[in-house]
Specification:
The complex is a heterodimer of chains A (161) and B (224). By secondary structure, chain A is an all-alpha fold. Chain A has a single domain, classed as PhyR, sigma-like (SL) domain (Butyryl-CoA Dehydrogenase, subunit A, domain 3), CATH 1.20.140. Chain A is 64% helix and 0% strand. Chain A has seven helices and no strands. The N and C termini of chain A lie far apart (33 Å). Chain B is α+β, with helices and mostly antiparallel strands and 224 residues long. Chain B folds into two domains: 50 residues, no CATH class; 143 residues, no CATH class. In chain B, a hairpin with a 2-residue loop joins strand 3 and strand 4. In chain B, helix 1 crosses helix 3 and helix 2 crosses helix 3. The termini of chain B are far apart. The chains are: A mainly alpha (161), B alpha+beta (224). Chains A and B meet through helix 1, helix 2, helix 3, helix 4 and helix 5 of A and helix 1, helix 3, helix 4, helix 6 and strand 6 of B. Chain B: InterPro entries: Anti_sigma_zinc_sf. Chain B: This is Anti-sigma factor family protein.
Chain lengths: 161, 224
């Protein structure tokens, strides 16, 4: 599980936006997973199972916040993760891709990370997110076209940073 | 007739279509440069997303997260493998997803991976320093240890995402008890990577690496 932590954090950032929120999410996920380890089916993917726990926990949290603040969390994305470190020239392009990823709707970002970065199959990603494969594909294709700023991508609003 | 839309082109780029569809799209793409460019967009997008976000894996892990995982879990008591070897539960539950397709479909229970065929061959046949296979399937043996889990061998694969792992010989077969993906920039992330394999070795009471002569003797004996 400890070897999964970096990937859990990355997925958490895709969901939660800010690094601090993401780490809270990872911690809550690990605690929940350890408590309910008996529910994990042997022989199935531990990573998928934990990603699913994370996503469900995140949805719960977002619901709580929505009730409390009635302000959607949409605009909180901060995937830059620079922690004030100097941005060297080499990082500039990286940063612009990051910005574009950060500007994606959360649903699309989650699929993008699972499939393109974590190399999950569409089916595995669909299981983690508990959505149909068709939905995985439509979100993923929109996300990737947006990343490439390609014509024909369903126009998505840019989220201000 | 089949309509070729973006999602199909993407699935084609990702290798997610069935063989018949793959062929059909391949023909359509070969005949139409516009479609080919579209497929290129999907391929490139995957690469840049991966390159950009892979860097995150190198970020040092905060102590509190490591602590959250390493806390003693009572539910571990029922889990045979983890407790029988006294490995911390977290270290025992290692998953090889993210290791490319290398181990896919080869999972055994308890989070321990059954090693796949190429890997098994390498673990069986190679001495430390030797590489078996070529290209994506190559496996290099790095070291061999005697542990309380039997003979364990550290290996490295040269798949698209290199993986370093630890295979242990138990009950007549190899099990991958730990594996860690390369972090991206030519190193194994110290916070989560190589250091963790070392931690697993410590938990297994591994002694110092075996000499070539000792390895050869063990190999003759089926690694028992």
């Amino acid at each position: 599980m400890i070897l999964l932590l970096p990937r859990l954090r990355r997925f958490a950032r895709a969901l939660a936006g800010t690094s601090a929120d993401a780490d809270d999410l990872v911690q809550a996920t690990c605690e929940r997973a350890l408590r309910s380890l008996g529910q994990w089916t042997q022989g199935t993917r531990l990573d998928s199972w934990m990603f699913r726990i994370m996503r469900n926990h995140h949805i719960d949290e977002v619901r709580k916040h929505r009730i409390a603040a009635e302000e959607p969390l949409e605009d909180k994305f901060d995937l830059t993760g620079d922690d004030g470190r100097a941005v060297t020239e080499g990082r500039l392009e990286l940063a612009s891709v990051r910005d574009r990823i950060a500007a994606l709707p959360e649903d699309q970002r989650a699929v993008l990370v699972l499939v393109c970065v974590d190399d999950m199959s569409y089916r595995d990603a669909a299981e983690v997110l508990e959505i149909p494969i068709g939905t995985v594909m439509s979100r993923l294709s929109r996300a990737r076209l947006a990343l490439m700023k390609a014509e024909g991508a369903t126009a998505r609003r840019e989220v201000s940073r | 007739m089949m309509e070729v839309n973006d999602e199909m082109l993407m699935a084609y780029a990702d290798g997610e279509l069935d063989p018949k569809e793959m062929q059909a799209i391949a023909r359509a793409v070969a005949a139409d440069p516009a479609l080919a460019r579209r497929v290129g967009l999907f391929r490139t997008s995957r690469a840049i997303a991966r390159d950009t976000l892979s860097a995150d894996l190198q970020d040092p892990l905060p102590e509190r997260l490591v602590a959250a995982v390493m806390q003693p879990a009572n539910s571990a008591a029922q889990r045979g493998w983890a407790t029988s070897t006294l490995l911390p539960l977290a270290a025992a539950l290692v998953v090889a997803a993210g290791l490319g397709g290398y181990f896919l479909g080869n999972r055994a229970g308890d989070g321990v991976l059954a090693a796949n065929e190429a890997l098994v061959t390498a673990l069986d046949a190679s001495l430390t320093g030797e590489t078996l296979g070529a290209g994506d399937g190559a496996v290099k043996l790095l070291s061999t240890f005697r542990t309380k889990q039997g003979t364990c061998r550290m290996f490295e694969t040269s798949a698209r995402k290199p993986v370093r792992g630890l295979g242990c010989h138990q009950d007549g077969r190899w099990h991958v008890v730990a594996a860690v993906a390369e972090s991206g920039e030519g190193g194994f992330a110290p916070a989560s990577g190589a250091a963790s394999l070392d931690a697993v070795l410590d938990d297994l009471d591994a002694q110092s690496p075996l000499s070539t002569a000792e390895e050869e003797a063990l190999r003759k004996n089926g690694w028992e």
